[in-house]
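BUG: 3D viewer hangs when loading the predicted structure for this chain

Environment: internal workstation, default settings.
Expected: structure renders.
Actual: progress bar stalls at 90%.

Input used:
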Amino acid sequence: MSSLPARPAMPRRGFLLGAASVAFLSACPSIARAADAGPAARLKPSDWLELERALQGGRIILPGSKGYPELSVGYNGAYENLRPAGIIWCAGAPDVVAGVNWCRARGIEPKIRSGGHCYAGFSMTDGVMISTGGITQGARVDGDGTVFLPGGLMNGHVYSLLRRHNVALTTGRCTTVGLSGFLLGGGIGFSMRNWGVASDLLLETEVVLADGRKVIATPDGPDGQLFWACTGGSGNNFGVNTAFRLKTMPVSTVTVFQIQWGFAGGKEHAVARALLRDLTTADNKFGSRLSLKARPPGPDNTTVAIDLIGQYVGAPAYVEKLLSGAMRAGRPIKKVIRTMAYWKAQDFLSEDDTLDRFHERSAFVAGSLSDEALDQAYGFLEKFPGRTNGTHADFRFFQTGGKMNKPDRESAFVHRRSDWLMDAGMSWAPAAPVAEIEGCIDWQNAFFERMWREGTGGAFQNFADPALQNPQAAYYGDALDRLKQVKKTYDPGNMFNYAQSIPVAA
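Structure tokens produced before the viewer hung:
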């Protein structure tokens, strides 16, 4: 077990506007965009025209241009006030090379965006954004069972391709997540206990470096260290990844399930305890996500208090038996357990993508959460201060372990001794009063600090947390020093950086 490093005292308003949050909570009207975009603020029309002549299929998107409102907005509405001075929309690796060379010549440190789903808005900027969103041509499944994927694809595009060939990767639930960011941070999903995280299936990746070179990194090639860094070292650290090749897995049918329990006289406590105890013993072919809901104003027996969803590569009888203890502890208000073709099952498991304002705080846990910690967690969930319609919180558990803990090769994804990834999440409505939002943030921080003590000391890099203390150590653990050396080799000038990026080794 580890403890959260001591945090210096900070008033509420200091947290809302502090450097660690980087314009976090732009729901407050008083928060303005950053005042200075650095060298990008001094760009002239002639600079943009020079870049436009160098592009080979891409285009420049400036404020006022067609497509700018849609392509400049971030996934997390908390950062909606941060908009780029210009977007380099790339159609292929040559456009990325042109954009990187153009930025380097002008002292610009661009932000790189693929899907744009960074929880903490780190792919947003008021300077120059290089977007790989147009790099989508040439995706294919080859006869050797590998898949070639351009770096600008969304997960939904990948799923459509894999479905046609009846193969799969470890994938998440949200179709609009960018493939590149998903993979480079490890990539979690219901199949990770069976196949490993998504980056465990990576075979090679094409990367445009800060000096404008394009390399193809493989495990045993001359850029093997860069390849290793791309198996969990996160995006926008070492270069711009423009393509990937991965090993695919054959699929047939799976059992999917969704079980929900309502608020029923405290029985949800016993249900959660049974689930966390029994699911930890599950076969590696079983994957799940458990959500314990914060108590809303005036809940009744039909209000969802616990939501369990997932899949098992096997018969429904196994799922029924595994969940029997939780069923005895409390009767569910919804129960779906059925066998489906694999990709039909992924449709069942997928979630809608909505733009809101949110903050996620994660930690990995080895073993099951202690009874004392679970009781204290419910103490927090029952006192959530959110009252405005559309303001929510929950305590999620993504089931890890299995093959995820036993990869076939070394990897920059270090979270290999866990059974759960827990996440204290909170979202708020645009109409929520500032005082209520501040109260919710105070609640979330206190909740997280208590639960952090139950963890391994690791946090999930794809759930970027702007309030996390020592984030690089939490995201990368023992791999951090090696990642710094890779950074020094491939980006010594630190062109690719953001608030929690990997620093250059001294």
